[in-house]
Amino acid sequence: MAPLLIKSRQELLLSGKKNYLFCSYNLLTTKQLNRDLTLKAK
């Protein structure tokens, strides 16, 4: 029972890191898009 809990915890941590990276990547690309749009607007 214990190893299963540890495994799921590690998987949760891994998926959390993946989600964090994905979200920060999305934020960066969104900022980049907004910058491009504002540059084009000027």
Structure description:
By secondary structure, the protein is mainly alpha-helical. 95% of the residues lie in helices and 0% in strands. It has one helix and no strands. The protein is rod-shaped, with a radius of gyration of 18 Å.
- Mean pLDDT score: 87
The first-to-last residue Cα distance is 61 Å
Q: Give the topology string: H per helix, E per strand.
A: H
**Rounded radius of gyration (Å):** 18 Å
The largest β sheet comes out as:
none
Tally of helical runs: 1
Q: Give helix % range.
A: over 70%
Which descriptor suits the 3D outline?
Answer: rod-shaped
Q: Please report which band the strand proportion falls in: under 5%, 5-15%, 15-25%, 25-35%, 35-45% or over 45%.
A: under 5%
Output the structural class: mainly alpha
Low-confidence stretches: none
Tags for this entry?
42 residues, mainly alpha, rod-shaped
SSE topology:
Elements (H helix, E strand, L loop, with lengths): L1 H40 L1
Quick recap of the structure?
By secondary structure, the chain is an all-alpha fold.
